[in-house]
Specification:
The complex is a heterodimer.
Chain A (H helix, E strand, L loop, with lengths): L2 E3 L2 H23 L2 H16 L4 E3 L3 H18 L13 E2 L5 H13 L2 H11 L5 H8 L3 H19 L5
Antiparallel strand pairs in A: 1-2
Helix pairs in contact in A: 1-2, 1-3, 1-5, 2-3, 4-7, 5-7, 6-7
Chain B lengths: L3 H9 L2 E2 L5 H5 L5 E5 L4 E5 L5 E13 L6 E7 L10 H8 L12 H8 L1
The chains are: A mainly alpha, B alpha+beta.
Chain lengths: 162, 115
């Protein structure tokens, strides 16, 4: 897999192209929008410090970096003071803010494994093969998790017409 | 009833918001920093009205990659940049442990240093 050295403009491009997806993925992993943003910033900061070679395509690498950072953060969180987290992470089309909140809440009702697959499938656009590789499960398992998650989400969101 | 593709498309109408741009981090050139052992925090005040605060465990200091300053590493809390209105609450919440705070003027840094 080809790699390329990073400069600030490259990191900027990663941010522009993948920042939203990485943030959504981080939220799916830690269920805390503020912490999720910290994790994404930490990944970008690591990229900016150099000594990092990002393969092409970059997205799977960046998603894995977010995942690893989230795992480390979970272990370290016992040291932190809980703060109010009222930051929403989904942006809604005009007039549909309530639906965005409902989707966020519905996603958080899913199991962590299902939520992770939904975000990777819907907002990162990964195939089930790619999801399986990232999450260390088979493509069939990834597809199954997505199917069950979709069923739940549709049921929960149906009253809103989503 | 939606099929899977339609349902995915429906969800995609809602876009994850963008995180703060890395330029905000990269442009941070702390003009001063202070470590406050009582709350296990280090404060970095950057130029151009941007302040970054790092919080975390005091026993794990790391070199700040941008300023070569020794800081207490923890989570960079960019969400705190989003509103000074929440600052007092966050300071109060953090007083007993780790700290999350940010300010655009430096005034909060002064308040923090008095704690």
């Amino acid at each position: 897999m080809a790699g390329r050295p990073l400069d600030a403009s490259a990191v900027g491009r990663f941010h522009a192209e993948h920042g939203r997806t990485l943030l959504a993925y981080a939220v799916s992993l830690v269920e805390d929008a503020s912490l999720a943003e910290d994790l994404v910033q930490q990944v970008f900061l690591t990229l900016l410090t150099g000594n990092v070679t990002v393969p092409v395509p970059a997205l799977p690498y960046l998603l894995r970096a977010v995942r690893n950072t989230a795992m480390n953060a979970r272990r370290a969180r016992t040291r932190e003071v809980a703060l109010t987290d009222d930051h929403h992470w989904l942006e809604a089309p005009p007039g549909r803010a309530a639906e965005a909140v409902a989707i966020e809440r519905a996603l958080h009702r899913l199991s962590a494994e299902q939520r992770e697959v939904v975000v990777l499938r819907v907002w990162a656009g990964l195939t089930y093969d790619e999801i399986g590789h990232l999450c260390a499960c088979s493509p069939n398992t990834a597809a199954s998790r997505f199917r069950y998650a979709s069923e739940h989400l549709r049921a929960w969101l149906a009253p809103l017409g989503i | 009833m939606h099929d899977n593709d339609e349902f995915e498309a429906c969800l995609r109408q809602f876009t994850p918001r963008a995180p703060l741009p890395p330029a905000m981090v990269a442009s941070g050139r702390p003009s001063r920093w202070r470590r406050i052992p009582a709350v296990a925090a280090a404060v970095l005040v950057a130029g151009a009205g941007v302040a970054l605060v790092w919080s975390g465990a005091p026993e794990r200091p790391r070199e700040h990659p941008l300023a070569a300053a020794q800081v207490t590493w923890g989570a960079l809390r960019p969400a705190a940049l989003r509103g000074a209105a929440a600052l007092d609450t966050q300071l109060a919440a953090s007083a007993a442990g780790t700290l999350v705070a940010v300010d655009h003027s430096g005034a909060t840094l002064a308040a923090l240093a008095r704690k």
